Amino acid sequence: MTSLRERRRRQTACDIQRAALRLCLAHGSAAVTAEAIAAEAGISTRTFFNYYLNKQAAILGPQIRLDADAAAWFVTSRAPLLDDVVTLMAGMIDEAEVQRDLLCQVKRLIEVEPALQPLFKASLDAATQTLLMLLVRRLGTEHQPQAELIAALAAQALSLAVRVWAANETMGRPCISAMMRSQIEQTCARLTPQNCAAEV
User: Fold this and answer.
1) Is 159 strand, coil or helix?
2) Average pLDDT over the chain, rounded to an integer
3) Residue span of the structural domain in which 14 resides
């Protein structure tokens, strides 16, 4: 269970990100400084740097992390791999308490400033690498190529599911894992030998 102190820390991190996005949308990211973000968030510059290394990190927001217990469970589990991948990735989103309004603001900012796209792609790449590392530990190094494909597919499915969820206020957070699973299953079905032969 998350402690009150940790919940407050997460809230402050989100408040800083919200201030950063608000300023960037209003003035453009090039004109925004860490000092301005701190002032907008109602905190000191020193406090800002206790949460984020720079303004780019603040725009990106709290990083999605995987705790040691979840990693250990995934590596040793003998449940169906797809079930565990979906549970793990959706759990990372739940643990980060991803905010719908912040994701919508991020989307708007990227639309206005496409040059920021690599910043957010780097975050997805980091999640992919985390999953890849765990898949290799679970499946063995001899299955590295397959692990790379699974990690890339799962990360892209998660990204798509989160974007759909963010754009639809009627959807609950559990829909993220359901959509993620559906995307993976549909993609795998399309890539069966029979379907590939039929499309040639």
Assistant:
1) helix
2) 88
3) 1-61
